[in-house]
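Open question from group meeting: does this chain pack into something compact, or does most of it stay loose? Before anyone orders reagents, we agreed to write out a predicted structure and look at it together. Recording both the input and the output here so the notebook holds the full record.
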Amino acid sequence: MSLKVTLVKSPIASLPKHKATVAALGLKKVGQTVVKPDNAAIRGQIFAVKHMVKVEEVNE
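Structure tokens returned:
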């Protein structure tokens, strides 16, 4: 199982920690989508920036 993560809000006015987390997820532009493995580390990153991203579960 994987997670499809889409950036829906700009991190410009956010905390530096949140900007770094968005970059670590591989997201650069609003509307960009990446597919990440479903594990505890990725879920933790998503939880930290849950107000900026949309997450969908994908079966591969």
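Observations to bring back to the group:
The beta strands are 2-7, 33-37, 53-58.
The chain has a mean pLDDT of 97.
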